[in-house]
Prior knowledge:
The protein has 319 residues and is of the alpha/beta class. 49% of the residues lie in helices and 15% in strands. The longest helix is centred in the N-terminal third of the chain and has 17 residues, at 66-82.
Amino acid sequence: MRPPVAELHLHLEGTLEPAFIIETASKHGIELPWRSLEHLEAQYDFTDLQSFLDLLYVNLEVLRDEDDFAEVTRRYLVRAAAAGVRHAEIFFDVQAHTRRGIPAETVVRGIRSALDRSVADHGMTTKLIMSFWRDLPAEDAMGALTHVLGAGLPIDGIGLDSAEVGYPPSLFVEVYRMARDAGLHVVAHAGEEGPAEYVWEALDLLHVERVDHGIRSLEDPELVERLVRERVPLTVCPLSNVRLRTVETMAEHPLPRMLELGLLVSLNSDDPAYFGGYLDANFDAVVAEFGLDARAVEQLARNSIDSAFLEPDERARLH
Ligand code: HPA
Ligand code: ZN
């Protein structure tokens, strides 16, 4: 049995399984570019982050009504509970939906209706993090945040994702200031495909509490020293990194080095329906590749709890 674990880097849109995509398209009479389930399943061979995002952004268009958002959330919670997840912090990409005319209200209410049952159904606490596409103008993110805050929609934090290179954190200083002023938690993807410099910016300009991915931080010893000293959590996603060719093979994944250096790393599934598995599969993959012992697995699990946005009593319950 694995110790209690938190999942902190999980894109809800990345949990749409191929069968669900086909079913939901058919429910709404949506014509996808895929002729069949097999045709869709043949699309999952990625060369980089962008090639994956291209597929992700087509498929998520099947999400139309509140019930779709509730259903995809319910399915994730069931699967995560089976993987041993006791606390989940879930991203959704607001602009992926609002740009298609789906109101943020529909998205948040649908997701929340499922999250509201997760303690009762699975003993799992949750947080909801609204992410912005960094390859859209910061004004667009600002508009979405202003709307969601004004409407009083219940989110716990903001994040930053999508195509990284060429879209540095410095573009989003105002958005993050507004979020922090509103009492929201703040995280950002940085150092996945982008350079260590983006991790510095995320820390110094956006004042993020956690860095998503962050694996390219290892290229900068001074940055590593700071991340260790300040115990900045890094949410690492091994299967994602291999499938998006951020690292060439699992054997070359920097996870063991990150642990050795004393970085506060946790394991996460990122977009499990696209990258070959949920959190349990990520644990299994690194245990198999690196022969991690029970102590290292416990350390990773403990790190995830320490990296979560939990109150002290909730944290104590999971330790
Ligand atoms: N990186 C950037 N954007 C994303 C990712 C990711 O790993 N997953 C979903 N959107
Ligand atoms: Zn991600």
